[in-house]
Amino acid sequence: MPIVSVQDVKKTYASGFEALKGVSLDIEEGEILALLGPNGAGKTTLISSICGITRPSSGRILVGGHDVVSDYRNARRLIGLVPQELNLEPFAPVGPAVAFSRGLFGMRRDPDKVEQVLRQLSLWEKRKSRMRELSGGMKRRVLIAKALAHEPRVLFLDEPTAGVDVELRRDMWNVVAELKKQGVTIILTTHYIEEAEAIADRIGVINGGRILLVEDKASLMARMGRKNLSVHLREPVAAVPASLGDYGLELCNGGRTLIYSYDTKSDGTGITRLLSDLQEAGLSMRDLETRQSSLEDIFVDLVKEQA
User: Fold this and answer.
1) Does residue 144 contact residue 105 with C-beta atoms inside 8 Å?
2) What is the C-alpha separation between 165 and 150, in angstroms, rounded?
């Protein structure tokens, strides 16, 4: 049974805005799911609904078999949430703030567990520091520590590395990988597509309140990934010669580069024939370069298709 099951969930606000339009999604225990989508796609509304912060207009959500509406307390106990906002009490010391979060969920005092969480997030040396003395990156770590203090089975990270430098972002990825080893299920929303590419097992794409797809990352990239061949010309051209019209070439770089897109899974790439036809058209090549489609390319194409 999935650890999180979202069943035909809709959410319409009083203004009439339909934020979720029949979302269904199963999340397996121990996986990392990255939820991608542009601003206003419904990511935060979906997370808020699963965490019991927002009540769905219709549909059903189960966490660990507990209904998030009728059995809210037991469902919420299984969830850790790291919000986007750095909403921390400025004068609270780090250690007691994390310990207090544990108590909010009815967990008994456990200084050893709090120490373990603080050390895992490189916060142990800062345990006596007040929040206002911390950098933005350290405050982000404190939010994660507070979310982990009650030992949740499901952790939601809503844009966890927004405004965080590259080095700290890598550290956070390592923390997430360690949590996965411990069996924690992680749902990550992010604008950094390389983040999803680096750590997720599955990718979900949401736009306009609908899930466009949920798929294993590797198979998604294999299925939809394409390669581009950039042909750099010795002399610029004003337009693609008519004789090359069937290749769907894109002219860029001031007429100095032709880009040919091809499917890596097809029987033939057509590159040999293209190079021959380029020569026939009197175009002289300076260099060739290939590039694999990234997850970002795939995501942009998907959202365009649905627009």
Assistant:
1) no
2) 28
DSSP 156-204: EEESTTTT--HHHHHHHHHHHHHHHHTT-EEEEE-S-HHHHHHH-SEEE
Lowest-confidence range among 96-105, 211-220, 223-232, 297-306?
A: 297-306
Of 63, 36, 29, 13, which is closest to residue 211 (Cα–Cα)?
36
Query: What domains can you pick out in the chain, each with its CATH number?
Result: 4-222 (3.40.50.300), 225-306 (3.30.70)
**Which letter does DSSP use for residue 111 in this model?**
H
Supply the DSSP string of 25-76, one letter for each residue: EEE-TT-EEEEE--TTSSHHHHHHHHTTSS--SEEEEEETTEETTTTHHHHH
Under 8 Å between Cβ of 240 and 251: yes
Least-confidence region, from 17-26, 104-113, 154-163, 250-259:
154-163
| Residue 210: its H or E element | strand 210-216
Question: Residue 142 to residues 163, 199, 225: CA-CA distances in angstroms?
Answer: 15, 21, 37
Place of tokens 């490189």: 122
pLDDT in tens, 233-263: 999 999 999 999 889 899 998 999 999 988 7
Instruction: Please tell me the chain's helix, strand, coil percentages from 3-state DSSP, rounded to the nearest 5.
Output: 35, 30, 35
Paired tokens of 257? 């580069």
Mind listing the pLDDT tens digit for each residue in 151-173?
999 999 988 776 666 777 777 78
Q: What's the predicted TM-score (pTM) here?
A: 0.76
Q: Which residues of 2-21 are buried (b: 16+ CB within 10 A; e: fewer)?
A: bbbbbeebbbeeeeeeebbe
pLDDT at residue 263 in the model: 75
Tell me how far apart the alpha carbons of residues 168 and 172 are, in angstroms, rounded to a whole number: 6
- The amino acid present at 1, given as its one-letter code, is M
Could you tell me which of 117, 105, 109 has the C-alpha nearest to residue 52?
Answer: 105
Helix or strand or coil: residue 147? helix
